[in-house]
């Protein structure tokens, strides 16, 4: 169940009085008090020992420290980052650390940033868990010290720690953490940890270091890593599902004679939304799927969905100020200010539907035995997986065990549950045997939960000196929340703050209004890499450049002017300007700049492009990026995430689009859904510039939003003002803009 990205974690609590103990902010940390039959027992078994000061840490007699990783690892390095926080504060020896994926147990391992459920997304993992895990590590250290004091028969105040050892200065004696695990007893009562117990930055051993490798990389290099699609179990069967070509239709007649004749096929299963096949091999199930003859219903509203026509309609709605929307944000009277302005700049921006394109297509393995279910899946949302699996199996969530496997890409798609429902639905038919459902690439493309089709209309009023006096931003799109969280959508008066995410900026404008106008045309749309920020910042950052052009002002300097009270923002912009040598003329090329403060991180990028005026093809040669994550837990890994975001952002800005005609998706694989090639990827240079004393920001998606507008702004500078306003910048669209 996708949940909106909101800051409801420990940053909102009193940092001085915050205690880590059972039930803090809805997450049962249960230090020392976790029942043995709960998830902590699995940790002890995994570590081979039973010294378990809390649900997160187990220390074996040989000194091995096992730390639970609560988030889904999908290439972003979170399986290293989060356990590192605990290891830092407990003074563990990183060379003796073992990381284990946490089980599905939201009461213990839920993310405070997502209402305490287990969900990885929204660049919220580090932000949500940061305080919790550091305090967990600090309290673990205090428990170890208290246990060691009992063994050595000395006051706790005389003890100190270094990685993996407890030191008693007066006597020169020391104990390894393994020795404490073998002989120590938990103190009663358990000591509590507050912010005062956390290490100061000058004492950090691991946070901020560049040389700590990611724990998931070795197995990915040598091929031993187990992704969801790799799961193998005794008695495993395979499954496939034929879905309707138009979303929302159901099978009315099924001719499965040819499908049943395929060797290895064991079951044909009618489903409310399609037809399932179970067989002994992947090849058999997919061959049988191709031989099914199904008559589908014709009642779905999606049959009226043609994306090109709808986008034009969305643009008209955005322009029509008489059509009201939900007020998403308002500060000052933007309408009056714009009406009285000396100059008004108006612009429309649009973006097409976009496919997630994870390298690992949707898949899941399920086994149903009586009223219990076990799932092995590359899921971003174990809590949602439990709930949906329970509904399908007719049981309760606590009887569903979810094994979260490595994800071959997620981008929000694997927070959905449709592939989980497939596996559980088919596993019910062969009780006691596991069934692995693997979607074909064509299934994956045509039945994705796309990033929404959207149009924006931006009005900016300027006074006689060119200063901004009012800014109005209208966003027209369908809602993700209306499908995934209808109660929340209703409670917010019909506002979807993921669809409009990023429209609320930190530029200094005296009057600012954001309106959301929902268009409901029946198509399921979903969370995509950077979701709303990916297109709202496209419109905002391009309009900033238009304002600069109207004033005859350098666009980089205008941003600095509008961010005069934002030192972190100014720093990343000034840093990236130095990196790119912004003022140096380029022969046949141009630079464009864009900035974002999304996900609690400040990111500025400059793109260098060239343009083939005969074909309309844009080439992005290099992108410079400066990012301030607040706290740079792993700087080298942050650089990697920026490279991923910039590459993905360049791909979606230049190439990626899904076209739907009369409800049917026209693309089916990478031959028709265009993504960036390695030969087309720009050179990327990243500077990580953390700010001491700032809160930790989200990194997973922060690199994507600025790159598209930076490319568009570079094209405008190269062509003397030709504006690209429609994602993606297909060559024919570029030529049309050049010839307009």
From TrEMBL:
Every Aldehyde oxidase/xanthine dehydrogenase a/b hammerhead domain range: 222-300
Record-linked Gene3D superfamilies: Aldehyde oxidase/xanthine dehydrogenase, a/b hammerhead, Aldehyde oxidase/xanthine dehydrogenase, molybdopterin binding domain
PROSITE patterns listed in its UniProt record: TAT (PS51318)
Pfam family, one: MoCoBD_2
Domain of life assignment: Bacteria
Entry-linked PANTHER family: ALDEHYDE DEHYDROGENASE
Full protein name: Xanthine dehydrogenase family protein molybdopterin-binding subunit
Native organism: Phyllobacterium phragmitis
Lineage, broadest ranks: Bacteria, Pseudomonadati, Pseudomonadota, Alphaproteobacteria, Hyphomicrobiales
């Amino acid at each position: 169940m996708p949940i909106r990205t909101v800051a409801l974690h420990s940053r909102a609590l009193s940092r001085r009085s915050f205690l880590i103990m059972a039930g803090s902010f809805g997450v049962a940390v249960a230090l020392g008090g976790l029942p043995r039959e709960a998830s902590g027992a699995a940790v002890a078994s995994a570590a081979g020992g039973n010294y378990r000061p809390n649900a997160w840490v187990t220390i074996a007699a040989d000194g091995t420290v096992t730390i639970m990783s609560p988030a889904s690892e999908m290439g972003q390095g979170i399986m290293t980052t989060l356990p590192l926080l605990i290891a830092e504060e407990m003074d563990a020896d990183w060379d003796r650390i073992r990381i284990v994926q946490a089980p599905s147990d939201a009461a213990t391992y839920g993310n405070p940033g997502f209402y305490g459920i287990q969900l990885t997304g929204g660049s919220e993992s580090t932000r949500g868990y940061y305080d919790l895990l550091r305090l967990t590590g600090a309290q673990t250290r205090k428990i170890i010290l208290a246990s060691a004091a009992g063994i050595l028969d000395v006051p706790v105040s005389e003890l100190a720690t270094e990685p993996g050892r407890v030191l008693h200065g007066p006597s020169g004696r020391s104990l390894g953490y393994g020795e404490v695990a073998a002989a120590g007893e938990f103190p009663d009562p358990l000591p509590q940890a507050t912010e005062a117990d956390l290490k100061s930055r000058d004492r950090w051993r691991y946070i901020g270091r560049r040389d700590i490798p990611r724990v998931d990389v070795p197995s990915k290099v040598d091929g031993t890593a187990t992704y969801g699609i790799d799961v193998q179990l005794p008695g495993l069967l395979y499954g496939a599902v034929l879905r309707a070509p138009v979303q929302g239709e159901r099978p009315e007649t099924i001719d499965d004679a040819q499908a049943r004749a395929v060797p290895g096929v064991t079951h044909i299963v009618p489903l409310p939304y399609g037809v399932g096949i179970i067989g002994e091999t992947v090849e058999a199930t997919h061959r049988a799927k191709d031989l099914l003859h199904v008559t589908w219903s014709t009642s779905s509203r999606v049959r009226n969905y043609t994306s090109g026509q709808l986008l034009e309609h969305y643009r008209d709605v955005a322009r029509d100020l008489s059509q009201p929307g939900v007020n998403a944000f308002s500060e000052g009277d933007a309408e009056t200010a714009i009406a009285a302005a000396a100059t008004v700049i108006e612009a429309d921006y649009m973006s097409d539907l976009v496919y997630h394109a994870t390298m690992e297509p949707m898949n899941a393995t399920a086994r149903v035995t009586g009223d219990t279910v076990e799932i092995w899946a590359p899921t971003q949302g174990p809590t949602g997986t439990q709930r949906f699996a329970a509904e399908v199996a007719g049981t309760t969530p606590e009887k569903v065990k979810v094994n979260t496997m490595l994800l071959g890409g997620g981008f929000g798609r694997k927070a959905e549950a449709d592939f989980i429902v497939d596996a559980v639905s088919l596993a019910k038919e062969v009780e006691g045997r596991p069934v692995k459902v693997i979607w074909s690439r064509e299934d994956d493309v045509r039945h994705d939960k796309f990033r929404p089709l959207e149009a924006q209309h931006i009005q900016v009023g300027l006074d006689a000196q060119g200063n901004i006096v009012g800014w109005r931003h209208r966003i027209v799109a369908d809602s993700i929340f209306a499908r995934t969280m209808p109660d929340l959508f209703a409670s917010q008066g019909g506002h979807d703050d993921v669809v409009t995410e990023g429209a609320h900026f930190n530029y200094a404008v005296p009057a600012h209004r954001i309106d959301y106008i929902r268009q409901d045309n029946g198509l399921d749309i979903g969370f995509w890499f950077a979701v709303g920020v990916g297109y709202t910042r496209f419109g905002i950052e391009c309009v900033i450049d238009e304002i600069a052009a109207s004033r005859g002002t350098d666009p980089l300097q205008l941003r600095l002017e509008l961010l005069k009270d934002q030192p972190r923002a100014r720093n990343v912009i000034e840093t990236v300007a130095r990196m790119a040598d912004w003022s140096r003329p380029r022969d046949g090329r141009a630079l464009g700049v864009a900035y974002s403060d999304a996900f609690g991180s400040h990111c500025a990028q400059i793109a260098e492009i060239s343009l083939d005026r005969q074909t309309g093809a844009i080439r992005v040669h290099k992108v410079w990026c400066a990012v301030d994550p607040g706290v740079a837990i792993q700087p080298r890994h942050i650089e990697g995430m920026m490279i991923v975001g910039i590459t993905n952002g360049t791909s979606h800005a230049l190439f990626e689009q899904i076209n739907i005609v009369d409800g049917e998706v026209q693309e089916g694989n990478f031959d028709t859904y265009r993504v960036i090639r390695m030969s087309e990827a720009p050179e990327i240079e990243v500077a990580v510039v953390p700010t001491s004393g700032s809160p930790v920001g989200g990194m997973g998606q922060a690199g994507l939003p600025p790159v598209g507008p930076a490319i568009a702004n570079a094209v405008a500078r190269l062509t003397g003002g030709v504006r690209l306003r429609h994602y993606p910048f297909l060559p024919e669209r570029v030529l049309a803009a050049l010839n307009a």
